[in-house]
Amino acid sequence: MEFSAKQIAQFLQGEIVGDEQACVHTFAKIEEGMPGALSFLSNPKYTPFIYETKSTIVLVNKDFVPEKEVSATLIKVDNAYESLAKLLMLYEQSKPKKQGISPLASIDATAKIGENAYVGPFAVIGENAVIGANTQIYPHVYVGDGAKIGDNCLLYSSVNVYHGCQIGNRVTLHSGAIIGADGFGFAPTPNGYDKIPQIGIVIIEDDVEIGANTCVDRATMGATIVHKGVKLDNLIQIAHNDEIGSHTVMAAQVGVAGSAKVGEWCMFGGQVGIGGHIHIGNHVELGAQTGAPFSIEDNKQLIGAPPVEKRTFFRNVALTQRLPEMYKELGALRKEIEELKKQLNK
Length: 346
Prior knowledge:
Blueprint: E1 3-4, H1 5-12, E2 15-17, E3 23-24, E4 26-27, E5 37-41, E6 57-61, E7 73-77, H2 80-94, E8 100-101, E9 106-107, E10 112-113, E11 118-119, E12 124-125, E13 130-131, E14 136-137, E15 142-143, E16 148-149, E17 154-155, E18 160-161, E19 166-167, E20 172-173, E21 178-179, E22 186-189, E23 192-195, E24 201-204, E25 209-210, E26 215-216, E27 223-226, E28 231-232, E29 237-238, E30 243-244, E31 249-250, E32 255-256, E33 261-262, E34 267-268, E35 273-274, E36 279-280, E37 285-286, E38 291-292, E39 301-303, E40 308-309, H3 310-321, H4 323-345
Parallel strand pairs: 4-5, 5-6, 6-7, 8-11, 9-12, 10-13, 11-14, 12-15, 13-16, 14-17, 15-18, 16-19, 17-20, 18-21, 19-24, 20-25, 21-26, 24-27, 25-28, 26-29, 27-30, 28-31, 29-32, 30-33, 31-34, 32-35, 33-36, 34-37, 35-38, 37-39
Antiparallel strand pairs: 1-3, 2-7, 22-23, 39-40
C-alpha cells in the first residue's frame, strides 16, 4: 500500500516542505533510510542523518529549521514521534486479520466464541469461557474455565489466562504472559509453609498491553486489577491484590509486591521494586532500579533505594565517588589533631 506526502499530511494535519506527490510504501529509521520509506526525526542527536538520509519522506517537528539542503520531502507536525505512532497504528490496522477456528483447537462445548474471532491450532478454550468478537487467539493459548476475553483482543502464542479471569476490550497479551496464576501466599508453620488458597481473580481493563513473560497474579480474595490503558513491558511481576492505576507504564523487570496500590499515569523505569501494602500516588516517576519500601505522594520524581529526589540522588552519587579521597583527608586530619594534642599536653 502506497501513500503520498499530501495524504499523510492531511491525515496528520501537517505542513509539507517539498514534493507533495512523493510516495512511500514502508518505514525506516532515519539513519537507515531508503527510497520509498518514511522516517522521522524527534531526537536532536539524529539531526545529522536528515541531510544524508535516502528516505523519501521525513516527519519533523514544526520548529525544525534545516541548516543545509535536505533532499527528502519534510512533513512538519506538532510532535514527530506521536505522529509516527499514529501512522504505524494505521499501518497495523490495515493488515488483514486472521479469522476462523482451527479444527486442531480444543474448545469446550459450553464456551462462546464471538463473531469473526480467530482461534489457532492447539489453543484450548475451557468450560463457559467467553471470547469476544474480532479477538485473535494464537496457537497454544490457554483460556481457562469461566474466563472472559473482550472484543478486538490479541493473545499471542503461549499466553495463559487462568480460570475466572476477566480481560477487557482491545487488550494485547504477548507470548508467555500469565494472567491469574496463584499469588505468593504461604503461612509459616513449625513444619514448613502451608499454602493459602488464592480464590480471587484478575481483572484487566480496556486498552491494556502486557509484554512477554509478564505475570499478573490472582488475588487471595477479590481481584488484582490492572486499569485501562496500562502498558507493561516484558518480565514484570504484578503480585496478588495489586491495583495498577490507568495509563501507568512500567519498563522491564519491575516487581510490585502484594496488595500495593499504584496511581494513574505513573512511569517506572526498569527493575523498579515496589514494597507490599503501600500506596504510590498519581503521576509518580521512578527511575531505573528504584526501590520503594514506603508510600509516595502524587507528582514525585524519585530515584534510588530508598528513593530520593533526582537532584539529591545524583549529588549523593557524585559525593560517593569522592569517598576514597575524603577518607584519606580524614586520616590526615586525625594525625594532625593527635600531634596538636601531644604538643598541648607538653
